[in-house]
Recover the amino acids of this structure.
């Protein structure tokens, strides 16, 4: 019997075309998410490996910035692995009006034990003369430099302590800047040590750089080791290294661990987006299968009459839809790979832009198509196709055979059917599970309580005869719960991303409740449309369409919910992308220009040479690696940020001149002045800004700096109300104790473009790069928008699936109602009015869904955003949402009109024959 059913399906394959297209869309979305996730995970891993090259373990002096070369060679002998002591210093380069910041790498004869460099000219550091350097290809391209050109180099010399046998106190060498002019003797390929940290690098003979910077006799800043057993090497060497004052860190392993976490984050987000699209398409795909079964209702009736069991027929339908799923999986795999390149490429471009703003290059994304990934996507689509076939078959086979033989409409949305007792039990179980898991996650707790309320509602529906009244009451209470419950349970102090989970659940709940309230009034809504429609046949078509939309409550509610939920999701992501758009005047803290120099600068000298600038400040700063900064609460729970941040010394001039506001603080500190004064005078306190505040970090937590020599702890006393500082502020003494006093300087000033230009010219010798606070604020917002817009596009794919499924539902409706349409045609209804009748129903529902998502969903979003993030801007790009809404409705209307044309062209006599 199954073979007979499938043979009959193969004889008319075109009628399954729309179903195959829908399954192809599901497959393409799933494959795109999986392939993009693989590519991004691989990209993070390759980027971490490229950043460190052959360096697996890095050693730094624990109490000062430099150590003796002899100590480095001693530790290398003890380790018994390839490696080299290196003098790595921040530097600024200029040639012919081109300027860049990067690293100066002082390399010695030990480099011969590591993989040799490749390139043109002299690429062996030991062979470089006193006034010769080798550029890596990245720096050469940016400076437009060739062999033989002259390059000016400003090297930042760190502060370091020199121990003397004749004096108890060490001699402190203050940070300074040294200017060198050198000839480009070679250009090295960006690989190995030349590509260290993926920054523009200049390679210098280490002894030459030591003499030029005064770091002689024989000083280095890092000891780089190459080993496949980093942890074992550190365990063996650490006791000796610590006694010698060197802290060892498994830098590549830490970088790969961080990369794995970032890759897992993007994978979970992409898969969540794909699941949302598949869930949105499920109901419409069931409609597609029902449309096919409706066309074959005669076959179903005959097979039932000949004794075929429901189980056998269900199995036959499942096999048919699985076959369609196989075709859809194949086509989806072909389309999903280029779609993955677009989605993954957009996310990768965002990450590359962020890295470029931090002074380093990132590896490019390569689309990796793994057979296991394609197989997983195919299996998921096959499972969806099989489940869809089973659900549709069970609904179609619930109709008695005599009804099928009469070819009557399959009214599958009747509301009088008894409700299943499994639904409230399932909702109850899921609610309990989420509540149990949500003891430490507000979003899960709120979702769990919402599911418990939904379980109560569905159980009450089984016990009452007045379901419409109960539904209206439950929906009205649900709207209240979506705002009041979320406001009460949402811990918005944990950050925008953490609190946004609660807001999303609340918004989708509000959309669902709005659907329940709107479906019973679809006929009344259509009356408003009719008042502006032409008299005559169009009036009749709209009346019938409104009545039909209200009658098919389940179908209308699903379409309205999918469209409304998608629009709310897009709006929520757009608002999240603008959450960092604080006014630049507020973010600047009284300053309008900020910048960094690779070396220490004199603010008085800058001010004297920049008459348009006022309030010029220069304070020490250094970049903290991602693994070197975290926060910990009282329970020891750690929180981090997935990017390097700036460590800033809170010197008295900065404390007195700044005017930042506070986003959060301990009760004892009501102003930024009070908090920063406490940081300046106490060595155990710290202040961060919004950019460097990890999700969930609260005033009172510990700020932990772990740079290899042991963790240093500070009490987090306040959070500055800015995103542009990107810094962690500690006292000047605490800053210098970290060993990061390399001469880098943060420059802040007031003034317009002229002041910025004058300051840049005055600080050029120190490698000073400046930008306005406005441009820095715009960069943060643009980065957030680039990130959220990609996911907004993925969510918008649910609208495309909805269009395909809705057009298929129009085809099904035309088949089911051919007798009704035949009567209307016999009474004089024109073909174009039939098209209007069939297309107006889904367009009306989708329009209300659009309004529901835009008004109710965004209204809830606005209310909760004001409750939880009243200090952040709520900016909704209404024009972009309006374009999306109009475009989606036009596309839906065109697709539904095209799907309704076959029903309008059906002969009247053939349609009337269905009446018997």
């Amino acid at each position: 019997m199954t073979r007979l059913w499938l043979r009959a399906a193969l004889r008319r394959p075109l009628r399954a075309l729309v179903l195959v297209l829908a399954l192809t869309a599901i497959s393409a979305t799933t494959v795109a998410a999986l392939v993009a996730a693989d590519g991004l995970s691989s990209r993070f891993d390759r980027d971490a490996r490229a950043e460190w090259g052959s360096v697996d373990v890095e050693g730094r002096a624990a109490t000062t910035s430099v150590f003796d070369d002899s100590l480095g060679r001693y530790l290398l002998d003890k380790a018994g692995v390839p490696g080299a002591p290196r003098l790595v210093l921040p530097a600024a380069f200029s040639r012919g009006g081109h300027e860049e910041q990067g690293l100066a790498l002082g390399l010695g004869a030990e480099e011969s034990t590591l993989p040799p460099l490749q390139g043109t000219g002299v690429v062996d550091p030991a062979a470089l003369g006193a006034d010769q350097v080798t550029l890596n290809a990245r720096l050469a391209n940016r400076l437009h430099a060739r062999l033989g050109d002259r390059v000016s180099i400003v090297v930042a010399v760190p502060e370091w302590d020199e121990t003397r046998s004749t004096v108890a106190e060490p001699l402190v060498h203050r940070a300074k800047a040294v200017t060198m002019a050198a000839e480009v003797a070679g250009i090295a390929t960006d690989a190995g040590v030349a590509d260290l940290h993926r920054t523009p690098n200049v390679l210098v003979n280490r002894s030459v750089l030591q003499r030029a910077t005064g770091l002689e006799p024989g000083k280095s800043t890092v000891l780089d080791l190459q080993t496949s057993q980093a942890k074992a090497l550190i365990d063996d060497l650490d006791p000796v290294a610590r006694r010698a004052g060197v802290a060892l860190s498994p830098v590549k392993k830490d970088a790969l661990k961080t990369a794995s976490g970032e890759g897992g984050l993007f994978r979970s987000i992409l898969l969540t987006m794909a699941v949302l699209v598949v869930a949105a398409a499920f109901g419409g795909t069931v409609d597609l299968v029902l449309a096919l079964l409706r066309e074959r209702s005669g076959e179903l009736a005959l097979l039932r009459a000949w004794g075929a069991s429901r189980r056998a027929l269900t199995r036959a339908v499942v096999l048919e839809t699985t076959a369609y799923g196989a075709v859809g999986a194949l086509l989806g795999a072909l389309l999903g790979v280029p779609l993955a390149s677009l989605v993954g490429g957009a996310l990768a471009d965002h990450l590359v832009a962020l890295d470029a703003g931090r002074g380093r290059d990132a590896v490019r994304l390569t689309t990796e198509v793994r057979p296991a990934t394609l197989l997983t996507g195919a299996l998921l689509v096959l499972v969806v196709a099989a489940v869809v076939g089973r659900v549709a078959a069970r609904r179609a086979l619930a109709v008695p055979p005599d009804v099928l033989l009469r070819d009557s409409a399959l009214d599958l949305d009747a509301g009088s059917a008894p409700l299943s007792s499994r639904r409230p039990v399932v909702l109850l179980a899921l609610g309990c599970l989420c509540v149990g898991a949500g003891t430490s996650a507000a979003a899960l707790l709120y979702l769990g309580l919402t599911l418990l309320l939904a379980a109560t509602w569905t159980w009450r529906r089984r016990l009452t005869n007045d379901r419409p009244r109960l539904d209206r009451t439950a929906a009205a209470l649900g709207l209240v719960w979506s705002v009041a419950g979320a406001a009460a349970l949402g811990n918005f102090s944990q950050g925008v991303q953490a609190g946004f989970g609660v807001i999303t659940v609340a918004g989708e709940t509000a959309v669902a409740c709005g659907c329940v309230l709107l479906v019973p009034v679809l006929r009344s809504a259509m009356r408003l449309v009719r008042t502006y429609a032409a008299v005559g046949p169009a009036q009749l078509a709209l009346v019938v369409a409104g009545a039909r939309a209200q009658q098919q409550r389940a179908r209308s509610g699903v379409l309205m919910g999918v469209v409304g939920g998608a629009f709310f999701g897009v709006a929520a992501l757009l608002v999240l992308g603008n959450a960092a758009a604080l006014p630049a005047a507020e973010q600047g803290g009284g300053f309008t220009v900020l910048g960094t120099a690779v070396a220490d600068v004199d603010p008085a000298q800058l001010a004297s040479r920049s008459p348009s600038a006022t309030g010029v400040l220069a304070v020490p700063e250094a970049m903290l690696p991602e693994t070197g900064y975290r926060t910990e609460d009282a329970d020891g729970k750690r929180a981090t940020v997935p990017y390097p941040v700036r460590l800033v010394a809170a010197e008295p001039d900065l404390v007195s001149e700044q005017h930042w506001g506070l986003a959060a603080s301990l009760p004892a500190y009501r102003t930024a002045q009070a908090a920063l004064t406490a940081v300046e005078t106490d060595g155990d306190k710290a202040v961060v800004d919004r950019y460097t505040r990890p999700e969930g970090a609260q005033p009172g937590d510990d700020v932990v700096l772990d740079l290899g020599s042991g963790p240093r702890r500070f009490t987090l006393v306040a959070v500055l109300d800015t995103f542009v500082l990107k810094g962690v502020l500690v006292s000047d003494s605490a800053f210098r104790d970290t060993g990061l006093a390399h001469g880098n300087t943060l420059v802040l000033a007031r003034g317009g473009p002229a002041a910025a230009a004058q300051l840049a010219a005055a600080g050029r010798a120190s490698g000073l790069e400046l930008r306005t606070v406005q441009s820095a604020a715009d960069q943060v917002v643009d980065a957030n928008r680039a990130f959220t817009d990609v996911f907004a596009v993925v969510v918008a794919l649910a609208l495309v699936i909805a269009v395909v499924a809705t057009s298929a539902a129009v085809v099904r409706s035309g088949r089911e109602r051919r007798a009704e349409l035949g009567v209307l045609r016999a009474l004089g209804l024109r073909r174009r009015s039939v098209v209007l009748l069939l297309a107006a129903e889904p367009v009306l529902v989708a329009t209300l869904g659009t309004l529901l998502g835009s008004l109710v969903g965004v209204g809830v979003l606005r209310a909760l955003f004001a409750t939880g993030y009243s200090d952040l801007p709520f900016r909704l790009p209404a024009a972009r949402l309006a374009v999306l809404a109009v475009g989606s409705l036009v596309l839906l209307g065109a697709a539904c009109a095209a799907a309704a044309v076959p029903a309008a062209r059906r002969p009247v006599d053939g349609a009337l024959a269905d009446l018997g």
